[in-house]
Fold:
Amino acid sequence: MHNILSIAKKDLRGLFSEKTLVLTIFIQLFIALFSSFLVVGLTSFYDPGSLSESEMKSANLGLAHRSEIVLNSSTGANGSNYTGYARYTSDIRPNRSVNETLLYRLIEAGKLSPVAYPDYSTAGSDFYRSEIDGILLVPNTTIEGSDLIDIHIYLPKTDLKATVLMLQLKEPLERFEQCVRNIRTARLPGYAPIDLKFPEKPSNPYFEFIYVVLIPLLVFTPAFISGGLIIDFITEEFEQKTIDLLLVSPVTFADILDGKILVATGIVPVQVSVWIALLLLNQIPVHNPVAILLLVTAVTLILVLTGAFISITLETRGTSQLFYSLILIMLFLLCYIFQNSPMNLVAKLAIDSPGCGVYLIIYLLIASLLYAVLRRIMRYQSRYRSGYHRRS
Amino acid sequence: MDTDINMMVGVFTIAKWELLRSRLDLSTRSMIAAGGFVVAIVVIASFASHSNMGSGLYTISLDDANLAQILECDDRFNILLLGSDDARDAYLSRGADILIISGNVSVHGTEKSIAALDALKSTMKLHREIRLSSYPDLNNSFPVWITIHHLEREQSFQMLASARSGSESDLDDGVAGSADADAAHDAAGAARGPQAYVSGEDAIIMELKRSGAAGPAETDADTPAPPADMQEFRQMARRNFLEKQTVATPSNIEPPIPFTSVIFAFIFMFPMYFVAQFYSASIMNERTNRSGEFLLVSPLTKREIVAGKTLPYLITTIGIMFVLAMYLKYTLGSTSSSEIVKNSLMIVAVMIPVVSLFLSFSLFSSILARSFKELTFVSVFFSTIVSGYLFFPAMFAHIHAIALISPMTLVVKILTGTEICLSEYLFSTVPFYCVSIATFGFATLIFREEDLFTQKTVKKKIIDCIELFLRKRSYLFLLTLIFIPFAYMFELMSIVLLFNIPLPYSIIAMICISALIEEVLKSAGVYTLSLKGYTGKQAIILAILAGSGFFVGEKLMMLVTVASIADSVFGTVISMGSLLVYPLLLHIGCVAIVAIGLRYQRYSVCLLAATAVHVAYNFFLLRGVIFA
Structure:
């Protein structure tokens, strides 16, 4: 035990003196910063509700009727006959003005303040002058009819406002589709919509992202790094031939290995608890912190043992790291497929969903089994048995 | 000529050794094993189309067996199908997040419960869409279709550029204008004259008329035209998830999704990580076993050794990139082989600077590192930063011009069949070229015995490399000039990081960070020289050299990038507008503070003082934006 601890102390000191721990923390901080960029930046982008009032007002939408030529060609393309041509061309102005249409009213009810234009060319000039940031051409098709309603939307190219507008428009357009469907789906044989009455609650678009992606990623990053760390610990001794010196001292190879595994695994729960504390400070409650710590430690142990096994067999750093990364990717993909993967378990634990205890124990068992296997190999491979390392 | 040939021969000899050595490194058995893993990964990835992340998150208790069947399709839900009383009990005892009894949905007030409600809504919507698509009657099941067209319109900060060219000295106006697009627009309109004004407007109206009037098949819209019948609709719905969006009904339409760009970026960056790993391991091997000594005493120059060691890795990576690009282009539905090859070559042209940046960073870090552990961390650190720089702007590929910072945006554009122009290429790759060439240069400088085989600290080695560069004092001018692309990349990086902070704060943070970065880079040379000592008069000369070098570099960088970013508010922070005299004085002054201060104080103190002055100046310039 004393031997193991002294090896652990040596490696830990190395970590501190080379400031590698500082770099690790830097890397994790970086990931956190980028994730916050993802969460706040992107989700606010894709959720209309989280945009502030001023941003909303900065994007204006103009509505105009489509020209008559447009109407005709679109009805033609929809497979109906051209008989409507003469009837519509005779009347240049649409029957109703734009701000009487259902679509206009639905958009107005949303957060956008639409501007109605008598025709598309005035809308076009205002668009060029940046007075409006998008044009929606309202088709002259009736809701009760059976023609497709083809709405044309014009947005500025490579401009943030285009995205903002599209986000704002999605909800009114969906309502519009719903209105049209309410009338038209009645014509479908045997179709009855499932009617659920949803309570009105303000939603939090970040919630699922934070718990399903962000927290598992943050919590497992130290584990991934530790797996790589053990490879460096072990191959370094092989490549610099210091292993021979260590082995002529009273320590056995198993002791050396244990010491290194202890350091690589031990630093993970510390980092994870800091992450959980930081999340709490940011008002993101993480439930079951103890269970999460246990699970992460078990997974770390699995990764560290895998790393140790690879580096003992290969003895060179480059190839060991290659294999470790390949295995890591494979495990990562498997996490994606299997329902009770560690990633998903962390999400469920953090969100306080039931039914995780069994799997937690399974992962702990896998970790201890792997450790036992490694010990066995150490015992029966003659070259590691004594304190003397013989190369075959 | 003769020396050229000799150099080539030397480079190729080293390259050949490197290839032989790395093949010995990977035995046949491990090659096969690695291949097996790659195959396994591909197989698993093909199964991974359906995600199980987040399965079993929410619990729903309900009394309707029909509804239970629908909801069971979504892994996120645990379904408790009970009698109505039991279901209510389960809900009330907090065993379920949602209760559905006879079509009435109730939720707790907790965040989780509300998130479950959102999930329920989206699942029901999806179910409705799938069910409707089973009817053959398109006009009644999917009655509303949306066609989106994108029109060219000058963006506010580009307009500003033209306004500026008219009134060069009018900095204050320009800065205020960039915050206020309307004001900028008026200025631009005036500067461009009435002729351009009318034609631009007409073009938009013509476009409105043309694309509206043309049949759906002929429009160049960004969403496809509505399908003619249900058959065609089903074909559209079966899209590959890497492909562009096809079903454009209100429920299905989504704003441009950034995640496909991220997947592309990931596919291309992955091989780079591995090759860079092997490259740095090879350099590290030369160092740990001191086998590099034999190379150094050979008649080859340092440059030949570095070039020879790099070449095999560079070529391998570029080869992989080419194959990947061809494969992706092929899967994205491109059929003509000439187009595939042409586009793949373009992608390779975009990726070459990225690959060399990666390799140059791994070379530099493998010389700096004292042990394998340190190397792992230094290289992971570098690659996280570089990949962040590549990934995140690319998310906005089709949304905002800021995305052009990253070459990955260009790759995404080429893959999706958008034309790119030379100025875009230059804008996103020139910093990469400059930084990678400079890093290779610096690494070659310290590729010598004193630095390779000793346990010097990272800081000491960096100082060594600056010292070697400054053969004469006048080289200081060149050094700060070379540092410009580094400063530029760091600052662009910080824009991305600060993107999510609300506007006035992000600019304040940006000012402070960019001032600090610039001051560090400007004074690095002066600091190195100060270790040897200099007189007060020399300090002034050094400050002038360093300051003017930085200034010239800044203006050169402006020339390359002036079109897109340099005129947004952030750009003004970086380049401080187009004034000439004051920035020059500022740069020289700040370096002078450090140069003179170093004789009395520690470096960090001097640095902070210089940064403070720099920040104060920038605040003064941008007061219009910050306090508006």
